[in-house]
């Protein structure tokens, strides 16, 4: 659904998400995504829809009440969209995640000990590694804007935390079920709303003067973070993938604690005491326990109970979570780098525009609905008439462009445009990658 | 961790393992014929593709049986992580690049020179 609104941020309405209908119509859904395409426009478009479909299976109610949104509530959860969702969800999942079948392969004779050895290796590697996104924040010319960009990606899950996990709590599968539930109830503050992780994440956003309602920053979620968030729904919705989910959540819970320690150090460096890091502190602490519980009481316990038939699936989940986690970080780092160097990319854009043929012309009127998109190929955007703002971050100042200005947009980089003059025209010129 | 673009043989102590490809799947299997320890990495596939013929005494080893005893391995793109048997964290492991004839189809040139191998050594952490 289009918001139909010119605002950069989404309003407090969880039922409407800007999907950029024109950009969506360009997407060829006939050929599935490849492993190298996770940050592509095709991926962004698919994961926006997929994420919306998944969340329609959860309860979203606006804080201010439903009074003005009852119609949207009825549409979002209504029969028409449910039928559309149910008829296309599996195909969309194949499109978006089918590549994992080729990208990750688990072979050999697995034992519980081998599974644990692989798990320990994967997390040791994560502990020793750098976070490209956090490094990009530190290196940025505008580190506060860069740090906000990272928060926006965390907001995707941070404001609806553990929703995917909820799909694996029902049923009857013994002590492992109770162990998983312990983690779930931690996320929900043991029934105390003020302690709920989404509540303290909202506090973190507000300490940065950022909006804290669900999907305020919808327009700024990147493709790989969307894919990462969707992955946990993907392996949770289909209970045949339960063991993959367990591998993935065990890896995630184990690597979260040290990654939040690194995040705290970075954010203190950028903001000093002017940021509320309770959320990060909470995770740096509680995820040590979650890492231990998921390993000992869920992952290895399920492997022991259900034997070699399920262990490769558990290992596969670890590998997939590791892969997607690295893409999340790299995509975020790339967006921070691009948004932080628009001046340089404007110079490149002028050069590229001079060497390229005329492209597709698009008219934009002031007050048009705002949305963001990316391109599958590196693209030069050239302003042919009027004046517009190039928006690449949720909290930074946009870049004003007038007739004759250009900017180079690397493939996969997210941007939006707002007309400043009553009308303006720009050209989109695909550039041959060097 | 093995970079599959560069390596396909691993030496753990005195035991050698090699990457064996079936269809699109890679498996890390023992380079030792159960008969007299012949190098299965130099074996030829039988015409039906279901067995390997050991170059030492012609013993036929079923591909399915070989795959069942493969080392636990996770391939992610061009990387593979293998859980090696009986090694401590500090044990040395050599990773060797070598052309593996057992991966050739049965009708491939039988005279391919196994020394035409761009051999190199590296190190990998045992897991």
From TrEMBL, chain A:
<dbReference type="GO" id="GO:0051213">
    <property type="term" value="F:dioxygenase activity"/>
</dbReference>
<dbReference type="Pfam" id="PF14518">
    <property type="entry name" value="Haem_oxygenas_2"/>
</dbReference>
<keyword id="KW-0223">Dioxygenase</keyword>
<dbReference type="InterPro" id="IPR016084">
    <property type="entry name" value="Haem_Oase-like_multi-hlx"/>
</dbReference>
<dbReference type="InterPro" id="IPR011051">
    <property type="entry name" value="RmlC_Cupin_sf"/>
</dbReference>
<keyword id="KW-0560">Oxidoreductase</keyword>
<protein>
    <submittedName>
        <fullName>Quercetin dioxygenase-like cupin family protein/predicted nucleic acid-binding protein</fullName>
    </submittedName>
</protein>
From TrEMBL, chain B:
<dbReference type="GO" id="GO:0004497">
    <property type="term" value="F:monooxygenase activity"/>
</dbReference>
<feature type="compositionally biased region" description="Polar residues">
    <location>
        <begin position="117"/>
        <end position="127"/>
    </location>
</feature>
<keyword id="KW-0408">Iron</keyword>
<dbReference type="InterPro" id="IPR017941">
    <property type="entry name" value="Rieske_2Fe-2S"/>
</dbReference>
<feature type="domain" description="Rieske">
    <location>
        <begin position="1"/>
        <end position="58"/>
    </location>
</feature>
<keyword id="KW-0479">Metal-binding</keyword>
<protein>
    <recommendedName>
        <fullName>Rieske domain-containing protein</fullName>
    </recommendedName>
</protein>
<dbReference type="Pfam" id="PF00355">
    <property type="entry name" value="Rieske"/>
</dbReference>
<feature type="region of interest" description="Disordered">
    <location>
        <begin position="103"/>
        <end position="127"/>
    </location>
</feature>
<keyword id="KW-0001">2Fe-2S</keyword>
<dbReference type="GO" id="GO:0051537">
    <property type="term" value="F:2 iron, 2 sulfur cluster binding"/>
</dbReference>
<dbReference type="GO" id="GO:0046872">
    <property type="term" value="F:metal ion binding"/>
</dbReference>
<dbReference type="InterPro" id="IPR036922">
    <property type="entry name" value="Rieske_2Fe-2S_sf"/>
</dbReference>
<keyword id="KW-0411">Iron-sulfur</keyword>
<dbReference type="GO" id="GO:0016705">
    <property type="term" value="F:oxidoreductase activity, acting on paired donors, with incorporation or reduction of molecular oxygen"/>
</dbReference>
């Amino acid at each position: 659904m289009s918001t139909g609104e010119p605002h950069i941020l989404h309003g407090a309405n969880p039922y409407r998400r800007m999907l950029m209908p024109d950009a969506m119509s360009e997407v060829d859904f006939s050929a599935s995504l490849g492993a190298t395409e996770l940050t592509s426009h095709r991926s962004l478009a698919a994961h926006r829809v997929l994420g919306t479909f998944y969340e329609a299976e959860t309860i979203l109610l606006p804080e201010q009440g439903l009074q003005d949104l009852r119609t949207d509530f009825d549409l979002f959860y209504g029969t028409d969209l449910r039928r559309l969702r149910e008829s296309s969800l599996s195909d969309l999942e194949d499109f978006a995640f089918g590549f994992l079948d080729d990208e990750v392969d688990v072979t050999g004779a697995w034992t519980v000990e081998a599974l644990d050895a692989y798990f320990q290796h994967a997390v040791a590697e994560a502990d020793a590694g750098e976070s490209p996104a956090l490094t990009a924040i530190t290196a940025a010319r505008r580190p506060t804007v860069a740090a906000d960009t990272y928060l926006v990606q965390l907001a995707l899950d941070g404001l609806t935390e553990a929703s995917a996990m909820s799909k694996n709590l029902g049923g009857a599968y013994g002590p492992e079920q109770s162990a998983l539930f312990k983690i779930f109830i931690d996320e929900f503050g043991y029934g105390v709303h003020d302690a709920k992780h989404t509540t303290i994440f909202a506090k973190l956003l507000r300490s940065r003067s950022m909006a804290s309602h669900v999907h305020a920053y919808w327009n700024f979620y990147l493709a790989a973070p969307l894919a990462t968030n969707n992955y946990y729904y993907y392996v949770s919705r289909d209970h045949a993938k339960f063991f993959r989910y367990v591998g993935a959540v065990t890896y995630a819970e184990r690597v979260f604690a040290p990654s939040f320690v690194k995040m705290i150090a970075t954010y203190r460096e950028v903001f000093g005491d002017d940021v509320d890091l309770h959320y990060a502190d909470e995770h740096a602490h509680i995820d040590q326990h979650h890492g231990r519980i998921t390993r000992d009481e869920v992952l290895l316990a399920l492997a022991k109970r259900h034997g070699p038939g399920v262990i490769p699936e558990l290992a596969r989940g670890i590998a997939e979570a590791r892969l997607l986690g690295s893409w999340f970080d790299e995509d975020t780092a790339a967006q921070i780098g691009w948004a932080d160097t628009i001046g340089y990319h404007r110079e490149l854009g002028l050069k590229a525009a001079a060497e390229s043929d005329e492209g597709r012309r698009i008219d934009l009127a002031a007050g048009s609905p705002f949305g963001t998109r990316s391109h599958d190929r590196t693209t030069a955007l050239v302003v042919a008439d009027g004046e517009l703002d190039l928006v690449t971050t949720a909290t930074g100042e946009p870049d004003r462009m007038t007739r004759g200005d250009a900017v180079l947009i690397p493939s996969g980089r997210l941007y939006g445009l707002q007309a400043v003059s009553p009308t303006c025209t720009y050209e989109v010129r695909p550039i041959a990658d060097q | 961790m093995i970079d599959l673009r560069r390596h396909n043989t691993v030496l753990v102590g005195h035991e050698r393992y090699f990457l064996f490809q079936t269809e699109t799947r890679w498996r890390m299997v023992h380079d030792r014929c159960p008969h007299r320890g012949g190098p299965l990495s130099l074996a030829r596939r039988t015409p039906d593709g279901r067995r390997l013929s050991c170059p030492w005494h012609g013993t036929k080893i079923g591909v399915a049986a070989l795959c069942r005893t493969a080392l636990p391995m996770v391939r992610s793109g061009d990387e593979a992580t293998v859980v090696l048997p009986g090694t401590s964290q500090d044990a040395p492991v050599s990773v060797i690049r070598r052309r593996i004839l057992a991966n050739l189809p049965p009708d491939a040139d039988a005279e391919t020179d196994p020394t035409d191998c761009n051999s190199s050594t590296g190190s990998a952490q045992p897991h």
